[in-house]
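Internal QA ticket QA-208
Title: Verify multi-chain structure generation after dependency bump
Assignee: T.L.

Test input:
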Amino acid sequence: MLSFKCDYSEGAHPLILEALVRTNLEQCDGYGEDRFTASARERIARACGLGPGGEVYLLGGGTQTNSTIIAALLAPYEGAVAVRSGHIAVHEAGAVEYTGHKVLTIEGRDGKMEADALEAFLASFQADPNKDHMVWPGLVYISFPTEYGTIYTRSELEALHSVASSYGIPLMLDGARLGYGLSSPECDFSLEDLKDLVDVFYIGGTKVGALCGEAVVFPKGAPKHFFTTVKQHGALFAKGRLLGIQFDTLFTDGLYLKISAHAIGMAGLLKEVFRSRGIPFFLESPTNQQFVILENERMKELSTQVGFDVWEAVDVTHTAVRFATSWATSREQIEQLAAIL
Amino acid sequence: MLSFKCDYSEGAHPLILEALVRTNLEQCDGYGEDRFTASARERIARACGLGPGGEVYLLGGGTQTNSTIIAALLAPYEGAVAVRSGHIAVHEAGAVEYTGHKVLTIEGRDGKMEADALEAFLASFQADPNKDHMVWPGLVYISFPTEYGTIYTRSELEALHSVASSYGIPLMLDGARLGYGLSSPECDFSLEDLKDLVDVFYIGGTKVGALCGEAVVFPKGAPKHFFTTVKQHGALFAKGRLLGIQFDTLFTDGLYLKISAHAIGMAGLLKEVFRSRGIPFFLESPTNQQFVILENERMKELSTQVGFDVWEAVDVTHTAVRFATSWATSREQIEQLAAIL
Amino acid sequence: MLSFKCDYSEGAHPLILEALVRTNLEQCDGYGEDRFTASARERIARACGLGPGGEVYLLGGGTQTNSTIIAALLAPYEGAVAVRSGHIAVHEAGAVEYTGHKVLTIEGRDGKMEADALEAFLASFQADPNKDHMVWPGLVYISFPTEYGTIYTRSELEALHSVASSYGIPLMLDGARLGYGLSSPECDFSLEDLKDLVDVFYIGGTKVGALCGEAVVFPKGAPKHFFTTVKQHGALFAKGRLLGIQFDTLFTDGLYLKISAHAIGMAGLLKEVFRSRGIPFFLESPTNQQFVILENERMKELSTQVGFDVWEAVDVTHTAVRFATSWATSREQIEQLAAIL
Amino acid sequence: MLSFKCDYSEGAHPLILEALVRTNLEQCDGYGEDRFTASARERIARACGLGPGGEVYLLGGGTQTNSTIIAALLAPYEGAVAVRSGHIAVHEAGAVEYTGHKVLTIEGRDGKMEADALEAFLASFQADPNKDHMVWPGLVYISFPTEYGTIYTRSELEALHSVASSYGIPLMLDGARLGYGLSSPECDFSLEDLKDLVDVFYIGGTKVGALCGEAVVFPKGAPKHFFTTVKQHGALFAKGRLLGIQFDTLFTDGLYLKISAHAIGMAGLLKEVFRSRGIPFFLESPTNQQFVILENERMKELSTQVGFDVWEAVDVTHTAVRFATSWATSREQIEQLAAIL
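Actual output:
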């Protein structure tokens, strides 16, 4: 059945599979000590415009990457600040808490953290006479695009970064869908700019053409012995080549952004389909995840013909649902959906 | 350069790559809800002779699998018993301790745990007047083959299982190299027997032909909400199909054991090469890892021509080194090594 | 300076000190194996009307007791549900998260959890298609009296207990100030009733006449090896007699409730003082913590003459502050305060 | 029954009880913000000869203190090195592992760590090609006196400190029985010297005259936000005065060392009793814990008349047992024992 349920429905971009096949019998050292990983790290560093101190690590999946980075950056008495809808706050089965750290939540808007809200939270913490009895905010976590498909503008990121920095706290960007954010026509900055806008971020592979893999970028260098921390978190691949080859391919000839742009193009068509059928949007998303409101009966009926993700109840008779495009979405699939609708 | 450094030097068995390519654009649900994973779980259950309550889960890598299983099975006040050379005790960067559990070590012999030693340890614990101030042994961890390539006989496993059971403790078998153990001519039991010999085990994919992946088998059913525990440990793949397709392939037409047997055949040739050159063995291994003793100067010289793993110092002038074969080792590679030696 | 800052400003009830002095040189076994602890456990069990399976443990302080109980009762994938103002959610420095468990917060009213809100939360969790990616609610935590001095009625507790039980989740009551709640004229149940109203609770000593100590009551028996868990959490006193003697004294001749009733009597006088001076209450508290609203200038001035606790800003020019009475508060102190006001 | 089972059989030194009684109704702020704690910290700092950066914290008990210090000092990927018989390695119910850190054990001699063994361990770790897959040694833990009553000489401590420092690792001294070590005639350094011999240590109160309490000394300053870490570990007393008053008393007029010296004097008499009766010593201990070997039948018989601690089997018919003196041991008790023997 046709599905727009998520952006990880298919396997990998064909060029990745080709590279896996082509290099298959070449013998490599394990644990990321292979030439593909070296090349991938080098290409990513270049694409991100990293200086000599910058470092890149390849991990397997989003939850793992989030909890590994956060545990590596926080002191034991610190927690990570996120908006209430942040992925680490809701849908990672308590992976951050499992490492001993609280997720401190503040209200967001359409999935985004606002600099004013962050400033107010941090200021109130510092002013609290009981702060020594509380979890210290030690890192600010945002996702880009957010769980609602929304993105930050350059000035919004600058504002968040400036607030976080003024309290001595790093800003971390979960880029599980980074490509789809950067390729949005509404995005006013580039991958190269990110190194100055946040303190650590990762480039999502799993949802942008890879079988698995997230590339963590530390513009100013990784925490001490980060390799060991990755191992301790069970996030080190014996066959590091699997991650290396994939990212090496994604960062050759701009493939990563090219396929991201394709997904955004398809999302544009998708929006057009909904708009032309008078189906209202739950919120305005400029990326590959589109949220529309369906009357419950219609939703039930539609679900027998096409896959989508049930998001949240809007009222007693309506529900917000998510349709996602990806690097693999074809014009034909959009047309099929149009026909169904 | 020719390498016998480890059994994860190459990519995946060609049939796995073919399957990945063939199924690439088929849309699947994420997180293991795909048809490949269902089929793989089904095939593995059948290959293991599981009864109706048995369950199979697919995870990404060894360290992750070990710490996830152990954390799921232990109560907070319990620890895992292992031999001093056990992988979880030494080379997993404290991943088990990171989940809050102590690894309780006892002496092993050639990497194996002996039933008598286990019995003595558990009995002395129970007899200790201070046991309530100590970490309770809550699980027995063994690897098969061990870190030294050795394997347990059926009766040895029965003895360990019987001791563990008599103390109400589950026996867990780390099968990162399970195929190489089962295919050894000295192994006197089969994959189907394992369900009765231990309480939980996993079938290593990473080192036996897959790009990544370990299949955890709970003959009597998984711990409650194990899916959520896997997610919490960052061990859940969004593209569960990656694991599903690999294990589905490995368990079609007996591929897993066929390629394991090939590696054992190559190890036989390797042994012959060492024996014929008068190179002494560090210990007698019936599986794909072979340990020989080299004079240090020779070791240094040899390392410029062929890859192997430095294991441990034997005396001031000699070192034990490891040569490993795998599903990918060819007769030509063995001959090349013979020529070099 | 006169202080109403908290209910732990003084040392211990004189009878406790007398008992410590009287028994000082009697030799006892350590770690709670002394006759005082045995007697205290026995007296508490009787006062609580425990049946044969019930168990009592003596720990040192509130945060320690909360995190030890919670960690002992939760599975690794579970979290504790609390209202946003719950002590474990805010003022325990992330002690619960440090044990690996999330605190799941819901909105409360005047510090209390409402059965409807709990039911809605648990129902929505069960209905959530993503619940396997989320932290499972595994325990419900309430405090009695709450952090705002409010208390639950019997029927409110019954409703909460019924909701929690219908989801198979234990209800835990943090009774750091239990005596002050039970002695409130508005409390419509007794200490003996608690065993049926909740699944585990503790009787606060630190804030009710002891130097330290909280008595945990498991009406249906403690989690397996709870002694070892207490030790693991660093909550086991070598000189268990210190806790034993204190609780033995508090539960002899009804001392615990007598001194609690005294504090409530003093709180009544305190309320009268505020009411007669036209100082508005922040909320209606029937226990020993009284919250009033002060104009900020007046607050500053007053703070030079009497100790109180700054609670939270009400508006730009007003602040809610807390005055607490205790077993040690005297009529003279209330009169002194009246004179100052 | 007369008991030499441990050094925490009695309550507190009478001067401590007097001080508790005398100050009982003085109102203090909680959580260590009282004048007694301030005074105690000041007196201890002076007794230890601390410079301006030095800091002192008061915690409740040994296990709690060990795990709090260790968790505060280690990075997540690090573990604590201890001898196999070290208290944290055996008898603290895995409290250190519960915080996520491995205890790395090496062989000791009579409970002591040897500088050569430490050097060998750290050197071999640094030389290990797999060290990035292993737990990094991040702290060296020793106890003084050890679990066997033995003590380090100044030069032994200097050697250990020098080795640890050369690897950039702090040396921590568990001084649960510190007074009994310092007061031993064989001790060749003083409390004032300790600040230069180790990086952090604590002065045991529980076993040396207090009801509870350990004073942690950081000669070069505590880890950042140590107060919050203490709270997070459940180790912060609401009535900090309980610890403050006790340590203030112990460090007034040299009481701590005076009562320690008394215990050592009594241990001298105890030794004399054993020696004169021809009862062999298990090892030579210069402190308050004396280990002798009893024939099993005699041990059983004796245990009906006097309390002692069963330590470990020596052979099939003999057992090592421990007799401990303390600040509270009287000449009469020793004479009673002599009469029994």
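Spot checks passed. Chain C has two domains: 15-253, 256-340.
Status: verified.
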